[in-house]
Amino acid sequence: MVIDKMIPGRIYERRRHTAEREMNRIRAKMRSSQTLFFKNMLWLLKVSVYIKLCVFIYCYLFDYLADALIKAYQMTSSKASVAPKL
Known about the structure:
Helix content is 84%, strand content 0%. The protein is mostly helical. The chain crosses the membrane at residues 41-61. Keywords: Membrane, Transmembrane, Transmembrane helix.
């Protein structure tokens, strides 16, 4: 016969430790899910900023190249009297 189970204080201690372990497990799970959520949000933020940056650079470069092409065309067409000016 096990005497620990006969003493009410021991039963209370065992239950309390079990409940504490369970609460710690739940807290750890919540922490890990919150961390995962914030990591995912941070990843999405990084990706969106990267995409916006790429689009901005692409548009800026396209605008710059278009201006350069127009100027080059105007310089070549100014020599010929038939070509229209832009």
